[in-house]
Amino acid sequence: MRKLFKVLLALVFLAVALCAFFYIKNATTEKPIPEIHGLLLPETKGIPPFALQEADGSSFTEKNFMGHWSFVFFGYTHCPDICPMTLSILNHAWKELALKKDKNNLALTDNLQVVFISVDPARDNLTLLKQYVNYFNPAFIGVTGNDTQLSMISKYFGIVYNLVANKNDNPDNYLVNHGSAIIIINPKGEYQGFFSAPHNTDAITDDFVKIHDYWQP
């Protein structure tokens, strides 16, 4: 009986040792979250249902994020500075990423979309929106919606915007204050993180390569 007890005890110690070994091994081989000019969430978040409209007239919902990496930027076509500057930087980053390949020898832009969400639906009709995004890159997607729809999706991503009253007699001549972060959404359609301003081409390009490599199995 005593011999059997020693054998069982030895087996218990062996099982505990094996569990500890595999736990430590997994903990030490897990990829660390890369540091970027912004933030990657330690736990991704699913995006709630929403409905906007693309510049070509088709519907744009949370399902449009599935199967792609997405960079999402909120702004408006009458923006005098940050919007054209950011879209220009994203266009240059797009061209740089088009030259980089993944493990399947595909360009990183093959699985990337840039989405510009206008928070000024009163002035940004679909025709103007399409012309605006196409000026920077024909592959970019312009979307907008009504105030309720835009308020819901912007609040989810923590993007604050508000109209600034004009100081003249033209009611259509106003500015819109808005957040400048570029939202990052992974191919599962989950909120992965964001790039923070000030933006530049090299940072976005290098950071996305790191994010892409980290996310790939």
Keywords:
2 domains, 217 residues, 37% helix, Glutaredoxin, two-stranded antiparallel ribbon, alpha+beta
Helix percent band: 25-40%
Are there runs of 5+ residues with pLDDT below 50, and where?
A: 4-29
Corresponding CATH superfamily of the largest domain? Glutaredoxin
Largest sheet: 8 strands, mixed
Radius of gyration: 23 Å
With strands numbered from the N-terminus, the spatial order across the biggest sheet is: 1-10-9-4-5-6-2-3
Tell me the strand percentage band: 15-25%
Task: Explain how this protein is built.
It contains five helices and ten strands, in the order αββββαβαβαββββα. Strand 5, helix 3 and strand 6 form a beta-alpha-beta unit. Helix 2 packs across helix 5. About 12% of the residues have low confidence. By secondary structure, it is α+β, with helices and mostly antiparallel strands. The longest helix is centred in the N-terminal third of the chain and has 28 residues. Strands 1-10-9-4-5-6-2-3 form an eight-stranded mixed beta sheet. It folds into two domains: 30 residues; 182 residues, Glutaredoxin (3-Layer(aba) Sandwich).
SSE arrangement:
Elements (H helix, E strand, L loop, with lengths): L1 H28 L8 E9 L4 E4 L4 E3 L7 E7 L6 H16 L14 E7 L7 H11 L4 E4 L2 H10 L4 E4 L10 E4 L3 E4 L4 E6 L5 H15 L2
Parallel strand pairs: 4-5, 5-6
Antiparallel strand pairs: 1-10, 2-3, 2-6, 4-9, 7-8, 9-10
Short description:
By secondary structure, this protein is of the alpha+beta class. It contains five helices and ten strands, in the order αββββαβαβαββββα. The chain has helices spanning 2-29, 82-97, 126-136, 147-156, 201-215; strands at 38-46, 51-54, 59-61, 69-75, 112-118, 141-144, 161-164, 175-178, 182-185, 190-195.
